[in-house]
Queue: 2 jobs
Job 1
Amino acid sequence: MRKINRRRTHGTEEDAARSGDDKTVISHINQGELDLYRRRAMYSSAVLIFFFATLAARLWYLQILQGDQYAKLAQNNRVRTVDIAAPRGNILDRKGREIVTNKPSFNVVWVREKNRIDEELIKKVAAILAVDPSDLLARIRKMAGTPGHIPIRLAENIEWDKVAYIENNRMDMPGIKIEVVPQRVYHYGNLASHMIGYLAEISKEDLTDAETDSYRPGDMTGKMGLERLREKDLRGEKGREYMEVNSLGFEQRNLKGLEPLPGSDIQLTLDVDLQQAAEKIMMDENKSGAVVAVEVNTGRLLLVASSPVLDLSKFLGGISSKNWKEMLDNPHHPLINKTVQGQYPPASTYKIVTALAGLAEGIITPDSTVYCPGSYRFGNRSYRCWKYKGGHGTVNLKRALSESCDVYFYHLGQRLGVNRLANYASHLGLGKKTGVEIEHEKSGLIPTSEWKLKRYGKPWQDGETLSVAIGQGFNLVTPLQLAMMTAAVANGGRLYKPSIIETVRDPDGHIVERFQATELDHFTGQERALNLLKEGLIEAVNGRRGTSTKARLNSITVAGKTGTAQVVRIKQYKHLKEENIPYKYRDHAWFTCFAPAENPEIAVTVLVEHGLHGGSAAAPIAKAVLEKYFADRLPKPEDAGALPVVPVGGD
Amino acid sequence: MLRFDRRVLNNFDWVTVLTLSLITIMSLANLFSATWNGGPSPSPLFFKQLYFFLFGYALILFILSVDYSELEMLSYVGYVAVCFLLIYTKLFVKVVAGSQRWIDLGFIKLQPSEPAKLFLVLVLASCYARFEAKEDGYGLLDLLRPAALTVVPFLLIVIQPDLGTALMLAFMFVSMTLFSRLRWPALTSLSITGLITVVLGWKYGLKPYQRRRIETFLNPESDPMNHGYQIKQSKIAVGSGEFFGKGFMEGTQGHLNFLPERHTDFAFAVWCEELGFVGSMFFLLCFFFLLLWGMNIALSARDKFGVYLAFGIVMLIFWQGLINLFMIMGMLPVVGIPLPFFSYGGSSLLTNLIAIGILMNIRMRRFQKR
């Protein structure tokens, strides 16, 4: 009863407090309460003083009574923890061939005690290593800001006899140690170097980032490509060694430590043979550009080559500013990964999109014809066909594709309009990033009238649709996008997400990640249109007047389309012979194809920067890749080892 | 912005300011040494803590400008906000080193469990101050409300998991409850519940690593490289300081990396090693003087809210300090409780500085009638 009463009064007080006139509720302290608090505070202070005394007594015990003993322990206490680098995961190709692995590298390190530099010791080491002592001192000075227990590296990758000498004479050189560190080995040189990337010592900025607390100065970390993107998979976990050492720095005994956990192996979808073939032919012919090959029914990338390749040796131990500038100024742009970073007008390869849109929208049938007199008059301008002397005459879809008649597609583009065209391009994956695991991917550009209004504040001009219909004008695509589009045309309309990783396998051999085909878009109900398109593309390679005959194979049907992308429209070069046009103003050459046409397996896209003509510059490269891919199925050539030599220029 | 009544200013609490300044200087000097990595300039951590100190002092000034009774309503808002932050941390923050404690705000990694301690003190003080007990004291039922207020953040911190900080909340509740007038039956049943909780918690509630820490403490040889190792190294650091210490920046335990967490939980061990018994005692004197002075502030407060608040703040700083010091001197297992004002960490430092600000506030307004 009493309790209930009390709670009720208590409740009303609370209500009063909530309603705002609470100032009266917290009463000032009356004498009785003050006495109570005094008592409580006295007890509490007594507790405080008791604990103070306890702590003081403990300090006295530890520092005065046991001080000597602890001082001795501290003196002998030299359990040093040493990190053991974990071997980084290997990178393999689709057939399990090793592209990047590790080998042990022997480094000489110096473990500092108290930050004092022993000049005699350094001189001794310099003599063994046959270097100038000032070099070693410079290295030590560079590491001045790092915590003392981290060894300073004096020399990397030394020869075996020096390792043996130092190990045998370690008693004379306290603090000098041999450290075994895994080092990257590139079995195929600079193969796919843009995509695979390289390692470098972790930067000071990265070190201060709290997220990377397992890293120490001097650790290697992925700086580019997969090495960077997949750092977490590849790096593994460091081991730790507990070393008991005496006050002079000699190791006394090795306490139980922690084994390093190697990184996961990454198997790529890449085929080393194809990659090598493409890179070699591009390099031999001094071409810059991109070659991409993809499995049409899965989206696995078999080959992603950007030429010229990146010379990884220039990045080892930090790139010099001279090398860097050289690469930046190089007209062939070696720093750019042209497969995903290079954006080019698709030129005539885009006629695939225009044709598909025309068929799908019912604007043309295979029998619709257009008369090509060599140019097309629109408004007060004349739009030329590439064959403006004489023209193509009457062309249907098949001829228009195989002979790449511009006039046919001007007509078609005119009737489609820019936005309908853009819709099909977008379903084929153009104008947006594919999401491939390669750095710095660009999205390209497929213009719409809305886009132009937003970007330039001007309405779309019908004349511009004509340029767009043949892949010029505002259109920009990356070679990878074009390869994925070609694959989608080949496989019946399924746009896959391109992938370069087949599996990620942890050190126990368990697969932690496995390739899975991902469909980004599916073009249904257009089998007939796609088949008609395919016929045109087959004709382009195999027909008598086709533009892409240089990609023809003996027993396997290739279907493809060339493209010649205008870089600039400058009158003064119009009448020059092609080889006299300055390199940077020459047209880009495209070729994109798939094979076997009846039952497609592989799509190949080639871009040669400033290569002039798709048919002559790009198609032979695609042919070389296809020959390599179908090597077992083609009749044996006389000389199996050599790649076919293809003449440059001319049509 | 800051407006002070002249009478309030006349009562400015110089004693606290002076003691706090001494502690600040010791703390920064120690952090300078503990984080120094051989380079030409102090570590970025040192500057970060320095800025936190400066910011904290500015906060104190701000707190002094409002009457502390204004804080009462605000404290409930803060309490609820902190509880939500704790829930947010559990739900959305990724696990770091096995627990979810920090919210990254860019310039600071906020650890909501730190302000949670202070807000608990505030709401408990308000609770007890408004509570009219009969002459014979509170019964068990009267404690339901303060207990509920404690249990919510307690559980939220337990699941992070951060047992040490959660226990701090329990300590705050127990100390502040004991400070009020409690009936004997309530007291006994409370103690019995507490004991049962501890026993059950040990058996079922602890994570394996937490139990191992305690076991390691009881038998350090069982695990020489890990937690036993940490305590052992800490004891060696403290003990080897002897009477005068090894000298500022000369500690081998700290600088040769034997001492774990040497700028956070074990920061005081660096101080003991380098400045010896003399330096350690000086710090202890300052620290406990501040606490006793705080107790004095509680007694001179003008109203019950002030009394409970001041007492709660003293207890907040006392328990954190005691547990940390016991751990450093090898009298408790490793628990992640920082030493107030001394261990590196923004959330903890700001919370404790704000607490001191409130304490000074109570002192300054002791004569003011409302």
Job 2
Amino acid sequence: MKNRTLLWIWAALAAVAWLAPALLPTPAAQAEFPDKSATTLHYSIDAALDAKTHQIEAKGALRWRNDSPVEVAEMRLHLYLNAFKNELSSFMRESSGSHRGHTFDKAAPGWITLTSFKRKGGKELLPADEKDYEFVHEDDGNVDDQTVIRIPLQQAIPGEAEAEFELTWTCKMPRVFARTGQGGNGAFFMVAQWFPKPGVWEDDPEKPEGSWGWNCHQFHGSSEFYADYGSYDVLLTVPKRFEEKVGASGQRVDMNDSQTEHLGRRNEDGSITYRHKVDHVHDFSWVCGEDFKVIPETFAGGAGVDEEEQARVAKILGVEPKALDLPEVTVYFLLQPEHEDQLERHKRAVFNALTYMGFYYGPYPYPTLTVVDPDHRGRDAGGMEYPTLITGGTRYVRAEKQTSPEGVLVHEFGHQHFYGLLGSNEFRHAWMDEGMCTFATGKVLTKAYDGYSAAQWYGGLPHYGERPFAFAGLAAESRKAVPFAGSLFDDSWQVPFGSLSVVRSIAGAFGAQHPPESISLWASYGEVSPLAFLREVPTLTHLRLPPTSTKEYERSRNADTPMSDPVAGRRAWEYMNRRAYGNNSYRRTASSLRTLEGYLGEAVMLKAMRHYCATWRFKHPRPTDFYASIAATAKAEGKGDIAWLMDELFESATTFDFGVESVSAHPVPTLPAQPKGEVAKADDASKEEKPKIFESNVIVRRYGGVRMPIDVRLRFEDGSVREFLWDRKDDLYEFAVTLDSETGAWVRGALGEKPLVTHETALSRVTPARGEQQRWARIRIRSEKKVRSAEIDPTYAYSLDADRTNDGRSTEPRRGAALQLALRALGWVELSNSFYGGL
Amino acid sequence: MGDRMDPGMETPLNVLAETEAPAPAPTRRRAGAAPAKPRKRGRDKAAGAPTSRGPLGAGLAYVGASWRVLLFVVGVQLLLGLTVIVPFYSAASERLDHHPHASSLAGSPTAYDGTLSAWAEGGLNAGIWRDLKREEASLFKGLGVTFFWVAIVAWLFGALAAGGFLGTAVSGEDPVRVGAFLTHGARLYGPMLRVGLCFALAYYLVARLVLEAWGGSVASTEFMDSSEAAGFWGARLREGVVVICFFWLRMAADLARTRMALLGTRGAVGAFLRGLGGALRPRVWLAALAFGLPTYGLLLCLGLGAQELTGDDPWVLVGLFLVFQIAVFLRWAGRAAVLAAFAKLS
């Protein structure tokens, strides 16, 4: 009887374990929106652009719902264009007026002035004098920052109630800087962060429960945005020259004017008005440019561009492939005429992103997507995401073997998921959108492209390969090599005795009407003189590296940045510096997620991410929500409790670097077998000699602070391998390994249940664990064969590793790789020297 | 040209040399050593001989006669190169040679490498390469500085080589021996170096004028053009002009050197200014192109071959080393030929 009860319990547990994955929420397979009535904001805007003054006059009607049980006595609105009003804003102070290599033009600032704000049919809520406006600067106490305004309400908004406001404002677009503004003196407008946008009224997770308040941060140099989901209905009036040259969030609505095919309305003054509507988004932006080529393309949906992948993912998720069918999307490409030949590259990138991210994170639900290629006069508008509208960025000449512009397009599209559909707080948890999006971008690029080939650009054209080490030529290098002459060089020029003021004078003398603020000596970023091509003969001397995978590229870029902060737990402007913000928010998060994937396995990670995305779609997830979501799937899939892992990967500022310190083997002296009382003869001893026994010692090290279970593979001189798991507690477990005779590959079997015992005959872990202080383990093996090499993480599962050159060690050096490298470098130096010798 | 001049060589070049050029410094001999025997060199064999050969023939003949010198020059370049590369190799070797997948990194993956996807393809993994550079960052930074100063030495050596080539070409050495090459190089070192400085200064001014003054004056216009293409092609145009000016100035410098070697004059600036005009003569730039283009073409062809040389087979590595030394030989052979052709043209 007792046995039968145990049997039932066992059967029930087995059934639960088997069904557990199926019990998790089914991944969203269709493009479903939540109930519109649940939306917090409803914003109607009527805006008119004056392209000459670069100003926009707008009026709006805002319906806002208080989703809390407490009343709201004041409104807080983002006025982000004021970040570009002068150099005193927090954005400018933190960024030093520089963004992605572009500088703020003081002569062409931008601003937004709220001219009226009142309850519908009510009195003006703004002070009569603009000087009395109450700007909030709780983040840094910068009294000069005007990017958040507080407007006390005469009548508080009760809990769960709606309020309607009427407002008017004027904004002036700066010369394009930090993703917004105008370029070409009014030829191109990227209109973003252009309207007063309410902050998020929420229960602050960093305060005791029930602490409702405004989450409405100032605009910072290292942060993006956070807002409530809402619906937008926007009328955009633009000058005639922008007819059919406008793109905006959402879908264009017919203005019932039969004269135009583009659904716009021609006004009496010649201007054109377009109407765009979109629901379930948390921002609205638009763009117009007189040179745009507007090219609509249809993403047919279904299996997208890859039926095979659809079937594979469906199998992992345990659904029919049909359940992963993607909805149709009309994609509007707004390209510059000189980039029109790159349409196919743009299209392929966006369609790949729609497909694979649709499979991995759920379908893109909106019927339209606008892809903007910014005017070269407003290049800093590129590489940005807004709901249903993204900006890419390309150049006149692009290398075929480099994923540019593809990388930026896929990345910005990825934000439609990690920012758009999952509305995390970009101020407080930048990694949750940027990092996850970088991870997702890598998945798409890996799937759809061969990798990234390094190239050197000579005279505007790419040459694939890499110089053995940095040397840009005598003139450029002289500033490093001649210390006392450093002050004679201009950093931005890389030319001795270069001085921008001198150049401006010369340019002025030659009749330049607008001597440039900056000139690139060679045409653009990363290019070098064509004479360098003659000097170094790159086809002969440059290193030809195989294309780099996105995973590897990001791993090494992450490793290049010194460890300073944890990924999570920092506001965007609180990292040590902007580099630390950038690395933690983008690359380290992506590498952490890949490491998580390496630990969980690709299938479990896919399910976990799908689960997270489905659970938090159209909501505001926080780090704890992400951890819980992943942990739930991991547990259901038999991976146990992974809270420690999330802590290591996201909450700790520790370096991940495992390696092999040393490998050695020596024969073990053995005494010949000798019967008692007999004196052994030398000849007898040699006849009965035992097989030689070798003792191999392998020391594996934890160079960094992250403690994770890691695989160690030993390869013996006869080609056989043994694999071990060095776990977090410094115990060693052995995997069963068999040779697949067909493929010749070593196949790993089950992991031993018990840790290997110290001083065991075959293998011993001779160092007792010392808890957190333990940094290494010794594997000692006595065997008839010597260990030839040892390597950690042989399948390269963990892409957080800071240094892969120490991942393995062999007892027998092979000189080929270093010699080849050195020989090419030698040729490079010799040929360059020969060139200089000929001058 | 002193005791080495063939009495039969009555070319305008040699007439000039005999009448105007100062006598070369006497070659030093060891005390008690027998006077050097006049070398056997027939009229037909003299590299700079006034035969029916044109400048191209003279250039080729000179290269044929000076192979020892060219090997010497290659040796010097190798020595200079090793100064930079030995520390580089030492660091790379420490990190790569003991790697369990060193064969794959060298481009010839073993069957074992093939069982792990990360190593199956072979070739220097870009991530490993970046790790190497990061972990040895201070060394790599230092290499750039070392390279700079070694390049300066190479430039200084270039003046010696130019003097050696021109001196031996003018005197009609055949075969051209290293001793004579160095003797002439030392004798003409000052003028050659001064011309090199003239060239450097002139190129620097031209480059700044074109790229900065011209580029600066049109930068705003190009930037404000609706198409990015305007800036792109504008930059290409200026780069093209700089490249053409570079070759023009370089030919002018070589003509100046030739003139100074022939006439024994010491005024580098004047010679360089004369050279500016001379370099516009079609025969001059055609001669330069006739050697320059094939030389560079051969280097590119060698490049195609070198890219195929991968793996850790010792013969592959020897082959790679030889390819680069051949490339250096070709580059200097081209230079020697141009100088000999210019000597003939002058």
